[in-house]
Write a structure and sequence with these properties.
Radius of gyration of chain A: 18 Å
Shape of chain A: elongated
Radius of gyration of chain B: 21 Å
Chains: A mainly alpha (222), B mainly alpha (243), C mainly alpha (59)
Number of domains of chain A: 1
Distance between the termini of chain B: 42 Å
Structural class of chain B: mainly alpha
Strand content of chain A: under 5%
Distance between the termini of chain A: 29 Å
Order of helices and strands of chain B: HHHHHHH
Number of strands of chain A: 0
Helix content of chain B: over 70%
Oligomer: heterotrimer
Structural class of chain A: mainly alpha
Number of helices of chain B: 7
Shape of chain B: globular
Chain lengths: 222, 243, 59
């Protein structure tokens, strides 16, 4: 098995274990979505109107929460140093870790979306539209979030700094994700355009994220 | 004096010590001229006297973007060319840039109330500048989070460059978001060409604020160099005691 | 100079800008004095720079 495949397998296994972060992410997603009606009021029409936004915000915050563990766990037991020093290019190793993180933590969020859509009075088309935009957009969240995780890996209170640094970077993804969902649900405007921009953001982050994260790790760990 | 001379911190300190008083005096002079011109500027037929806020709002807004650009160049200096003073330049610029961004937001808000009837509006320009302000704060937090100055510099350099990519994306995406959800209601100030009566004070103030930035930046860089010397000596002293 | 019905906004804007600029100048100036003081103190306690030059010397 190639080193990269090994990284992916290992990361997924670790994440799926208890305390590994994957399922906790979904739980947090559920908590956020449940909190909203308490704050906003039980008016079903209002919740349906806000639905895509609430789901996107919940997914964003949930992935932020789990990003902390992306490099921190490896840093704690020393395996991060091994990864940095190995012959596999660090950029590819970072990409592999991010992919594993998305598979373990991002996909469950997407699967949970139609169910949570029910809580927010979203109909089937709406929920599926949001799930589709999350499918296209959560890679961007993971790969750009990885940059913040790499910058914060050696710091004690890194989690908070990570959040502060990653949120401005995630805003365009949020904007286009919600815009595409709204367009699919109610808009006269086409779904295609914001959706393709969302895909473009994800694809760009697939390139920039690993390079920036690898650079951060190299500079942060020496 | 060549660029390589400037790379030496000690030479830099000498140069700065000589230049700063002149820069400060020139800045004060231009600010004074700009203020007088702003006071004497006529009222706009639409906005009345509140157009005078433009003379301090626009230079701050322009500088908030320019400073991030400057920090990006410094970031390249740190990461690519390893220029010794790049770290110092970047660290010193961040709080000043944040201050200008804050002023741009506040003066813009105070200008917006008479003009649009509201202190805040979630349109493309305001939102982008607010996010820029948050990014400045995040960057400053990163600078302070890492103890070792050169490691902090490299982390900050990466974040600065990633932020530089993000700024046009945000501006563009918020433009798009506005088009989808609410029609843009930003009034265009002055149209395509501004009357000379307003353009001249604006340009004078722009130059004055730019000089103000350069003065403050050089002074802050000087402080940062001194701070690093203090740190080195403290470490020497501590290791001397321990030995 | 007649500032019209929104005079308070105009005055407030200029006042805030002036205040912030003064704060920046004050903070940078104060920091400068603090660093010089620390350097003098360290030199007085006998710590020497690698280059052998005086720390307070700006050359």
């Amino acid at each position: 098995m190639t080193p990269l495949a090994a990284i992916i397998r290992r990361d997924i296994r670790v994440a799926l274990r208890v305390g590994g972060g994957a399922l906790i992410g979904v739980l947090f997603f559920l908590t956020v979505v449940v909190l909203m009606p308490f704050a906003v009021g039980p008016d079903l029409k209002l919740l349906a109107r806000l639905g895509p936004a609430i789901l996107w915000l919940g997914a964003l915050l949930a992935s932020l929460l789990t990003l902390d563990r992306l490099f921190a766990a490896d840093h704690e037991d020393g395996s991060l140093d091994v990864i940095v020093m190995s012959r596999t290019p660090l950029e590819l190793a970072c990409a592999a870790k991010a992919l594993a993180h998305w598979l373990a933590a991002g996909l469950p969020l997407i699967v949970a979306t139609p169910v949570l859509g029910l809580l927010l009075n979203l109909d089937a088309t709406a929920s599926l539209a949001v799930a589709l935009t999350l499918l296209a957009g959560t890679p961007a969240l993971t790969f750009t979030g990885m940059i913040g995780a790499a910058l914060a890996v050696t710091l004690h209170r890194g989690g908070l700094l990570l959040a502060v640094v990653v949120l401005p970077l995630s805003i365009p993804v949020l904007i286009f994700g919600v815009a595409a969902s709204e367009a699919a649900i109610s808009g006269p405007l086409s779904f295609g355009t914001p959706f393709s921009i969302l895909c473009a953001l994800s694809l760009t982050s697939l390139v920039i994220g690993p390079f920036a994260a690898a650079a951060s790790l190299r500079h942060g760990l020496d | 004096m060549t660029l390589t001379d400037l790379a030496n911190p000690s030479r830099f300190l000498v140069l700065t010590a000589r230049i700063l008083p002149w820069l400060a005096a020139l800045t004060a002079l231009l600010l004074a001229i700009g203020l007088v011109q702003s006071a004497l500027a006529p009222d706009d037929y639409q906005q009345g006297a509140t157009v005078k806020i433009m003379f301090i709002h626009v230079p701050n807004a322009w500088l908030s973007m320019f400073v991030w650009g400057l920090m990006s160049v410094a970031a390249l200096g740190t990461l690519v060319w390893r220029h010794p003073l790049a770290d110092v330049a970047a660290k010193a610029a961040a709080p000043i840039g944040a201050a200008f961004t804050f002023l741009a937001l506040v003066t813009g808000s105070l200008w917006g109330r008479p003009m649009w009837g509201t202190y805040w509006e979630w349109d493309a320009r305001l939102t982008s500048v607010l996010i820029l302000f948050l990014m400045y704060l995040g960057l400053i937090a990163l600078w302070r989070a890492v103890d070792d100055p050169s490691r902090a510099a490299r982390a900050a350099a990466i974040l600065t460059l990633v932020g530089a990519i993000n700024i046009p994306i945000i501006k563009f995406s918020v433009d798009w978001w506005n088009t989808l959800h609410q029609p843009a209601s930003v009034l265009r100030i002055g149209g395509s060409s501004m009357d000379r009566a307003f353009l001249v004070p604006l340009l004078v103030m722009a130059v004055a604020f730019s000089l103000l930035f350069v003065t403050l930046h050089l002074a802050a860089m000087r402080n940062e160099i001194l701070r690093r010397r203090v740190r080195t000596l403290q470490m020497l002293q501590a290791s001397g005691r321990a030995a | 100079m007649a500032l019209g019905p929104y005079a308070s906004f105009i005055v407030m804007s200029y006042a805030l800008v002036a205040a912030m600029v003064l704060i920046l100048i004050g903070w940078i100036g104060f920091d400068y004095r603090r660093q010089k003081a620390r350097l003098a103190e360290l030199e007085a306690s006998g710590v020497v720079r690698r280059s052998g030059r005086s720390v307070g010397d700006l050359g």
